[in-house]
Design brief:
The structure is a single chain. By secondary structure, the chain is an all-alpha fold. Helices cover 57% and strands 0% of the residues. Helix 1 runs antiparallel to helix 5, helix 2 packs antiparallel against helix 3 and helix 2 packs across helix 5. The longest helix has 24 residues. 22% of the residues are buried.
């Protein structure tokens, strides 16, 4: 199990470094929105979770708030927004790198999606 965990964290570290490289490469396209999206998953997914009731124990979220945390901490939503901005609205998708970088950094540090009980879901 330990070996799989090291591989898992290494993959997300590589992704985080790739996203940092992309942000540096596109530095002229990145606006203040990059910094907003960098903190948005915790601002909108973690902080409000505590309004859903008390957490069962330290390190856990209230079970009723798991969906909100998981919504903001998966790659699907920012990827869909990226594609929509790029192809449908001809907007600037590069600030969304902040959101993707946040998720990759969380995974690198061992913070994954949450299970139904509010604790870390196993990979």
């Amino acid at each position: 199990m330990m070996r799989a965990r090291v591989v898992h964290h290494s993959e997300y570290l590589a992704l985080a470094l790739l996203l940092v490289g992309a942000a540096i490469w596109q530095k002229d396209q990145i606006t203040a929105w990059f910094w907003f999206w960098l903190i948005a998953p915790d601002l909108f997914g973690l902080v409000p979770a505590f309004f859903f009731g008390a957490s069962p124990t330290k390190g856990y979220l209230p079970p009723r708030a798991v969906w909100l945390y998981n919504l903001w901490h998966n790659f699907t939503l920012p990827a869909v927004l990226w594609i929509a901005l790029l192809f449908l609205f001809a907007g600037n998708p590069w600030p969304l790198l902040g959101w993707l970088l946040h998720i990759a950094a969380d995974r690198t540090l061992g913070f994954g999606l949450r299970g139904p009980d509010g604790g870390q879901a196993l990979i």
